[in-house]
Protein 1
Amino acid sequence: MNPTLVRLASHALLGRRRGLVLLAVPVVLVLLSVMMRLLTSEGVGQEAVLNLGYTLALPLVALLAASAVLGPEVDDGSIVHLLAKPVNRHVVAFSKFVVAWTAALVLGALPLTLCSFVMDASDPEQALAWGVGGAVAATAYTGLFMALAALTRHAVVVGLLVVLLWEGLLGNLFTGVRWVSLGTWGRDVAHALDEALYDPGVGLGYALGAAAVLATGAVWLAGDRLRSFTLRGDE
């Protein structure tokens, strides 16, 4: 990991208008939790709000973060100037992944814990389970969207299609999709920590392994793609 690249990626993430959207997503989710808690009894509506966080807010934050640290440089061609420096391309990809992943944890996974605690303060273990499961899902989502940002200029559009169609629509229609659903892997980890939560049925070992393999492979693919920018100079 390169500290200079981490600093530049952090500036790109927080210094653009996209950074405001990143902050708005968890704020809206937390405010929704507070409103539900004020209007209903403790724990009522918790599952619905947290499901919204898992299926929409968390992947949206990961998508915006991953595309913000890499996408603009690919779009405007400045990535070529960055890659002209004597830095290993996979180090570039990993450094940017760390920044996007940190944002996904802080603004995507952590709010799940906060929302769960706000809606049911009597069960902190469940709040922790939501957060840990969210962290696993955030890791996988960030890796996937990083790879998309390196592969295509339309990473945000493709990422939204993945979230809405694959993770949302098809995931609810076909049970077999759960084996390749990033959000489901996180939910399985959450269930392993608190059996009262929904059990997707893929198994803790599979969920952790699949998330790790996807994130690692995606970062490697992004680094390999960045190396091709230098070789061809076509972007």
Note: The chain has one domain: 3-232.
Protein 2
Amino acid sequence: MYDLDLDRIDRRILAHLQTDGRATNLELAQAVGLSPAQCHRRHKRLEAQGYVKRYEARLNAEKLRLGVIAFIDVAMEKGHIRDLTKFTDAITGLPEVLECYSVTGDFDYVIKVIARDLKSLSQFLMDRLMRLPGVNSVRSSICLDEIKCTGALPLPE
């Protein structure tokens, strides 16, 4: 299933970085059973080869009073292929949009949006999203409870 040049130690380094991206080199080396120098070389190689895309902090949405998550299906107007770049450029500039995917099926895009409350979400939908070039219709689903939210990828064994 996987055709990667990763050995067991590389996979352990990547797994540990997914759970603690702020680990020091010494902590990482101890976690994977290498000397700090060996660990540092491997870590830098994995970054250089593009296995590590970026490091980021996950903020607490509740603490920031962002209490509503919605998944919004977006259908584009037929024949507006020239507006797709305008749409995607606009979406990337909207801070409320956490994720956006081009999908198959009845809709063209699925976006994950965060807002303070339902009124803020409604304003986002009506005043911003529906006014983007080429947008024909939207359908939203409000998240009632977060069951699992992770950025950690499954690694080959």
Note: DSSP finds five helices and four strands in the chain.
